[in-house]
From TrEMBL:
Pfam families: ABC_tran, oligo_HPY. One of its GO terms (molecular function) is ATP hydrolysis activity. GO terms for cellular component: plasma membrane. This is ABC transporter ATP-binding protein. The keyword Iron does not apply. Residues 334-385 are annotated as: Disordered.
Length: 385
């Protein structure tokens, strides 16, 4: 069952000269109940912007230009005695609620989204080191979130839950009385995860949850997330630039570049049947334990400026497989299965299928072979295209 449904979401940042930065363009994906979905890509591709937009935490100059974010949660005021959406509200176009009870988070007011945060959707911010208030005890910060969303809970009950949550993520309960500066980096990350789980959300957004941690602590943090998912049935949206993290934890994923989704689908398809030049280049830049004497190959050039970007595929200036068609418009999402089984490029709106935004998706076999060659990714080779 679908928990989160993002449809054609476009996000902009206004700048002083009156133009705007196209941080995300027509991004669509779904997150099912109980699954882990990943957004991966280089820094600046729009991953964190997407995460913050879901819960209205964009910077003051950021805004959702268009699109919808349908989430399977209903505000308490919109429920009848049986917990179902009230008919008069579903039929009133001024309320962002569909007949199936899903709420459009993008259309909620500031007060309405505050009722959703923590209780239904919780965010683990990118910098856990700075996410905790330095003048509040760690346990008190968790208690505050519980009391805000569960007014019937006593402070003593909230304190017991806070200590239990810390213990669940591997922190001694008594450390609830300590301040953030008394925690190590890994402990701060675990404390932020405990805080995010305080109100039992249905969706946990983890923005770079292992950044700035050594590989041992990274592995432990990922294990904690998996345990919490099994125990509470929470869905997780993971954002990372590290595809090795995605390979370990995700069920499905989307690869982003320049504010666009370049490839999406089940994790196994993305890694074993890669269908987009950018994803192939991204894989080349990460080491594997299965290939000895492997040379890491970086993608030449730099990501495009997203202030009024030019027409065409966002990856065209760095892609060794570019053709004339790539300069005219950004490619739609093609169904990879239909290409491989029928040899036909067919656009797909099925968010669960393996899809790729590439005009040469019908030449995958040759592209996959060429992409493994280091010479393919030289700047000279790309300029000759």
């Amino acid at each position: 069952m679908t928990l989160l449904e993002v449809n054609d979401l476009s996000i902009r940042y206004a700048v002083e000269d009156g133009s705007s930065v196209h941080a995300a363009d027509d991004v669509s994906f779904t997150v099912e109940r109980g699954e882990t979905y990943g957004l991966v890509g280089e820094s600046g591709c729009g991953k964190t912007t997407l995460a913050k937009s879901l819960v209205h935490l964009l910077d003051s100059n950021g805004y959702i230009e268009s699109g919808e974010v349908w989430f399977d949660a209903t505000l308490p005021a919109w429920e009848d005695d049986d917990g179902n959406p009230r008919r008069e509200i579903v039929e009133d176009d001024s309320y962002p609620v569909r007949a199936d009870g899903k709420t459009n988070l993008a259309a909620l007011s500031t007060q309405q989204i505050r009722d959703i945060r923590w209780r239904d959707v919780a965010l683990i911010p990118q910098s856990a080191m700075n996410a905790l208030n330095p003048v509040y005890k760690v346990g008190d910060q968790i208690v505050e979130a519980i009391l805000r969303h569960e007014p019937g809970t006593t402070k003593r009950e909230a304190d017991e839950r806070a200590r239990d949550l810390l213990e669940r993520v591997g922190i001694e309960p008594d450390r609830a009385d300590d301040y953030a500066h008394q925690f190590s980096g890994g402990m701060k990350q675990r404390a932020v995860i405990a805080m995010a789980m305080a109100c039992g959300p249905d969706l946990l957004i983890a923005d770079e949850p292992t950044t700035a941690l050594d590989v041992i602590i990274q592995d432990r943090i990922l294990e904690e997330l998996e345990k919490l998912q099994e125990e509470f049935g929470v869905s997780i949206l993971v954002i990372s630039h590290d595809i090795s993290v995605m390979a370990e934890i995700c069920d499905r994923m989307a690869v982003m570049y320049g504010g666009k989704v370049m490839e999406s689908g089940p994790k196994e398809d993305i890694f074993q049947r890669t269908a987009n030049p950018y994803t192939l280049g991204l894989k080349n830049s990460f080491p594997t334990i299965t290939q000895r004497n492997q040379s890491l190959v970086s993608i030449p050039g730099t990501p495009p400026t997203l202030r009024d970007p030019e027409e065409g595929c966002r990856f065209r200036d760095r892609c060794p497989f570019v053709v004339e068609e790539c300069h005219a418009s950004h490619p739609p999402m093609y169904d990879v299965e239909s290409v491989e089984s029928e040899g036909v490029r067919r656009e797909s709106a099925d968010q669960r299928s393996h899809r790729s935004a590439c005009y040469r998706v019908d030449e995958l076999e040759q592209i996959r072979t060429d992409a493994t060659q280091e010479d393919t990714w030289t700047e000279q080779e790309i300029e000759n295209r």
